[in-house]
Protein backbone atom coordinates (compact mmCIF):
# COMPACT_ATOMS: atom_id res chain seq x y z
CA UNK A 1 0.00 0.00 0.00
CA UNK A 2 1.64 3.21 -1.12
CA UNK A 3 1.92 5.84 1.58
CA UNK A 4 0.05 8.49 -0.37
CA UNK A 5 -2.78 6.35 -1.77
CA UNK A 6 -6.37 7.07 -0.76
CA UNK A 7 -6.67 3.47 0.40
CA UNK A 8 -3.65 3.74 2.71
CA UNK A 9 -4.86 6.98 4.27
CA UNK A 10 -8.32 5.57 5.03
CA UNK A 11 -6.99 2.21 6.22
CA UNK A 12 -4.51 3.86 8.57
CA UNK A 13 -7.31 6.07 9.90
CA UNK A 14 -9.44 2.99 10.65
CA UNK A 15 -6.51 1.30 12.36
CA UNK A 16 -6.08 4.40 14.53
CA UNK A 17 -9.77 4.30 15.44
CA UNK A 18 -9.44 0.68 16.51
CA UNK A 19 -6.32 1.58 18.48
CA UNK A 20 -8.20 4.33 20.31
CA UNK A 21 -10.87 1.82 21.33
CA UNK A 22 -8.19 -0.45 22.71
CA UNK A 23 -6.86 2.47 24.77
CA UNK A 24 -10.02 4.39 25.68
CA UNK A 25 -12.74 1.79 26.14
CA UNK A 26 -13.01 -1.41 28.09
CA UNK A 27 -11.60 -4.55 26.47
CA UNK A 28 -15.13 -5.90 26.07
CA UNK A 29 -15.78 -3.34 23.29
CA UNK A 30 -12.93 -4.36 21.02
CA UNK A 31 -14.41 -7.32 19.12
CA UNK A 32 -17.67 -5.53 18.26
CA UNK A 33 -15.72 -2.50 17.07
CA UNK A 34 -13.39 -4.62 14.94
CA UNK A 35 -16.35 -6.55 13.50
CA UNK A 36 -18.38 -3.48 12.55
CA UNK A 37 -15.46 -1.41 11.20
CA UNK A 38 -13.77 -4.13 9.14
CA UNK A 39 -16.69 -6.40 8.17
CA UNK A 40 -20.15 -4.88 8.65
CA UNK A 41 -19.33 -1.41 7.31
CA UNK A 42 -17.59 -2.87 4.23
CA UNK A 43 -20.54 -5.14 3.51
CA UNK A 44 -22.96 -2.21 3.78
CA UNK A 45 -20.73 0.01 1.65
CA UNK A 46 -20.40 -2.62 -1.09
CA UNK A 47 -24.15 -3.05 -1.34
CA UNK A 48 -24.68 0.72 -1.43
CA UNK A 49 -21.99 1.23 -4.08
CA UNK A 50 -23.29 -1.65 -6.20
CA UNK A 51 -26.73 -0.01 -6.28
CA UNK A 52 -25.26 3.45 -6.82
CA UNK A 53 -26.70 4.64 -3.52
CA UNK A 54 -25.21 7.24 -1.24
CA UNK A 55 -28.01 7.01 1.35
CA UNK A 56 -29.23 4.01 3.33
CA UNK A 57 -32.62 3.89 5.06
CA UNK A 58 -32.37 3.24 8.79
CA UNK A 59 -34.61 0.18 8.35
CA UNK A 60 -32.06 -1.39 5.99
CA UNK A 61 -29.18 -1.36 8.46
CA UNK A 62 -30.13 -4.39 10.55
CA UNK A 63 -31.06 -6.66 7.57
CA UNK A 64 -27.68 -5.92 5.97
CA UNK A 65 -25.93 -6.75 9.24
CA UNK A 66 -27.80 -10.09 9.32
CA UNK A 67 -26.72 -10.82 5.74
CA UNK A 68 -23.13 -10.09 6.69
CA UNK A 69 -23.38 -12.47 9.65
CA UNK A 70 -24.57 -15.24 7.32
CA UNK A 71 -21.45 -14.78 5.15
CA UNK A 72 -18.85 -13.84 7.76
CA UNK A 73 -19.85 -15.64 10.94
CA UNK A 74 -18.98 -14.41 14.40
CA UNK A 75 -16.58 -17.34 14.81
CA UNK A 76 -14.84 -16.39 11.55
CA UNK A 77 -14.52 -12.76 12.67
CA UNK A 78 -13.27 -13.83 16.09
CA UNK A 79 -10.49 -15.82 14.42
CA UNK A 80 -9.72 -12.88 12.11
CA UNK A 81 -9.58 -10.50 15.07
CA UNK A 82 -7.31 -12.85 17.02
CA UNK A 83 -4.89 -13.03 14.07
CA UNK A 84 -5.05 -9.24 13.74
CA UNK A 85 -4.80 -7.94 17.31
CA UNK A 86 -4.12 -10.96 19.52
CA UNK A 87 -5.80 -12.67 22.43
CA UNK A 88 -7.28 -9.48 23.86
CA UNK A 89 -10.40 -10.35 21.83
CA UNK A 90 -10.93 -13.45 23.95
CA UNK A 91 -11.84 -11.38 26.98
CA UNK A 92 -15.53 -11.30 27.83
CA UNK A 93 -17.16 -9.35 25.00
CA UNK A 94 -20.27 -7.19 24.76
CA UNK A 95 -22.42 -7.23 21.64
CA UNK A 96 -22.60 -3.51 20.92
CA UNK A 97 -25.28 -2.11 18.62
CA UNK A 98 -24.02 -1.40 15.11
CA UNK A 99 -25.31 2.20 15.06
CA UNK A 100 -23.68 2.88 18.44
CA UNK A 101 -20.30 2.10 16.89
CA UNK A 102 -20.57 3.26 13.27
CA UNK A 103 -22.73 6.36 13.89
CA UNK A 104 -22.09 7.62 17.40
CA UNK A 105 -18.56 6.42 18.23
CA UNK A 106 -16.66 6.17 14.97
CA UNK A 107 -18.77 8.64 12.98
CA UNK A 108 -18.25 6.56 9.84
CA UNK A 109 -21.96 6.90 9.10
CA UNK A 110 -23.87 10.14 9.51
CA UNK A 111 -27.63 10.21 10.08
CA UNK A 112 -29.81 12.59 8.11
CA UNK A 113 -33.62 12.39 8.18
CA UNK A 114 -33.73 8.67 9.10
CA UNK A 115 -31.12 7.84 6.48
CA UNK A 116 -27.45 7.00 6.82
CA UNK A 117 -24.64 8.28 4.61
CA UNK A 118 -20.93 7.56 4.76
CA UNK A 119 -18.96 10.61 5.85
CA UNK A 120 -17.28 10.79 2.43
CA UNK A 121 -17.61 8.90 -0.84
CA UNK A 122 -13.98 7.83 -0.47
CA UNK A 123 -14.97 6.00 2.73
CA UNK A 124 -17.80 4.22 0.97
CA UNK A 125 -15.60 3.22 -1.95
CA UNK A 126 -12.69 2.09 0.22
CA UNK A 127 -14.99 0.00 2.40
CA UNK A 128 -16.70 -1.48 -0.67
CA UNK A 129 -13.27 -2.54 -1.92
CA UNK A 130 -12.41 -3.93 1.52
CA UNK A 131 -15.52 -6.11 1.32
CA UNK A 132 -14.12 -7.69 -1.86
CA UNK A 133 -10.82 -8.32 -0.05
CA UNK A 134 -12.74 -9.89 2.85
CA UNK A 135 -14.38 -12.30 0.43
CA UNK A 136 -11.03 -13.13 -1.16
CA UNK A 137 -9.35 -13.82 2.18
CA UNK A 138 -12.22 -16.10 3.17
CA UNK A 139 -12.65 -18.04 -0.07
CA UNK A 140 -11.40 -17.26 -3.59
CA UNK A 141 -14.41 -18.97 -5.16
CA UNK A 142 -16.82 -16.74 -3.21
CA UNK A 143 -14.84 -13.70 -4.31
CA UNK A 144 -15.11 -14.83 -7.94
CA UNK A 145 -18.89 -15.14 -7.57
CA UNK A 146 -18.92 -11.55 -6.32
CA UNK A 147 -16.67 -10.22 -9.08
CA UNK A 148 -18.20 -12.02 -12.04
CA UNK A 149 -21.57 -10.28 -11.84
CA UNK A 150 -20.45 -6.81 -12.91
CA UNK A 151 -17.60 -4.68 -14.19
CA UNK A 152 -16.08 -2.89 -11.20
CA UNK A 153 -16.00 0.92 -11.46
CA UNK A 154 -12.65 2.66 -11.62
CA UNK A 155 -13.00 4.10 -8.11
CA UNK A 156 -13.22 0.61 -6.59
CA UNK A 157 -10.38 -0.73 -8.73
CA UNK A 158 -8.23 2.21 -7.63
CA UNK A 159 -8.88 1.38 -3.98
CA UNK A 160 -8.13 -2.31 -4.54
CA UNK A 161 -4.86 -1.46 -6.28
CA UNK A 162 -3.86 0.62 -3.24
CA UNK A 163 -4.40 -2.26 -0.79
CA UNK A 164 -1.19 -4.16 -1.39
CA UNK A 165 -0.35 -4.40 2.33
CA UNK A 166 -3.81 -5.77 3.17
CA UNK A 167 -3.88 -8.34 0.40
CA UNK A 168 -0.85 -9.42 -1.55
CA UNK A 169 -0.24 -9.87 -5.25
CA UNK A 170 0.08 -13.63 -4.75
CA UNK A 171 -3.52 -13.92 -3.55
CA UNK A 172 -4.76 -12.22 -6.71
CA UNK A 173 -2.47 -14.39 -8.87
CA UNK A 174 -3.94 -17.47 -7.17
CA UNK A 175 -7.43 -16.18 -7.95
CA UNK A 176 -6.41 -15.66 -11.57
CA UNK A 177 -5.25 -19.29 -11.66
CA UNK A 178 -8.63 -20.43 -10.33
CA UNK A 179 -10.38 -18.35 -12.98
CA UNK A 180 -8.29 -19.86 -15.77
CA UNK A 181 -9.59 -23.31 -14.81
CA UNK A 182 -13.24 -22.24 -15.13
CA UNK A 183 -15.51 -22.25 -18.15
CA UNK A 184 -16.10 -18.89 -19.84
CA UNK A 185 -19.69 -18.64 -18.57
CA UNK A 186 -18.45 -19.07 -14.99
CA UNK A 187 -15.92 -16.25 -15.26
CA UNK A 188 -18.11 -13.27 -16.18
CA UNK A 189 -16.39 -9.96 -15.42
CA UNK A 190 -14.15 -11.48 -12.75
CA UNK A 191 -11.09 -12.12 -14.93
CA UNK A 192 -11.17 -8.54 -16.23
CA UNK A 193 -11.26 -7.17 -12.68
CA UNK A 194 -8.45 -9.42 -11.45
CA UNK A 195 -6.22 -8.52 -14.40
CA UNK A 196 -6.87 -4.81 -13.80
CA UNK A 197 -5.97 -5.21 -10.11
CA UNK A 198 -2.77 -7.08 -10.90
CA UNK A 199 -1.85 -4.41 -13.44
CA UNK A 200 -2.47 -1.73 -10.80
CA UNK A 201 -0.31 -3.62 -8.29
CA UNK A 202 2.51 -3.69 -10.82
CA UNK A 203 2.30 0.08 -11.30
CA UNK A 204 2.47 0.64 -7.54
CA UNK A 205 5.66 -1.39 -7.11
Tell me about this structure.
The chain is mainly alpha-helical and 205 residues long. It has helices at residues 6-24, 30-51, 58-71, 74-85, 98-105, 121-138, 140-147, 154-161, 169-180, 184-187, 190-204; strands spanning 55-57, 109-112, 115-118. The protein has a three-stranded antiparallel β-sheet. Strand 2 and strand 3 form a beta hairpin. The mean pLDDT is 87.
Q: How does the SSE layout of this entry go?
A:
Layout: H1 6-24, H2 30-51, E1 55-57, H3 58-71, H4 74-85, H5 98-105, E2 109-112, E3 115-118, H6 121-138, H7 140-147, H8 154-161, H9 169-180, H10 184-187, H11 190-204
Antiparallel strand pairs: 1-3, 2-3
Helix pairs in contact: 1-2, 2-3, 2-4, 2-6, 6-7, 6-8, 8-11, 9-11
Key terms for this structure?
68% helix; globular; 3-stranded antiparallel β-sheet; 205 residues; mainly alpha
Give a brief description.
With 205 residues, this protein is mostly helical. It has 11 helices and 3 strands; from the N terminus they run ααβαααββαααααα.
**Gyration radius over CA:** 17 Å
What class, by secondary structure content? mainly alpha
Average per-residue pLDDT, rounded, comes to: 87
What quaternary form is this? single chain
What fraction of residues sit in β-strands? 5-15%
Strand element count: 3
Largest sheet: 3 strands, antiparallel
In whole angstroms, how far apart are the ends? 9 Å
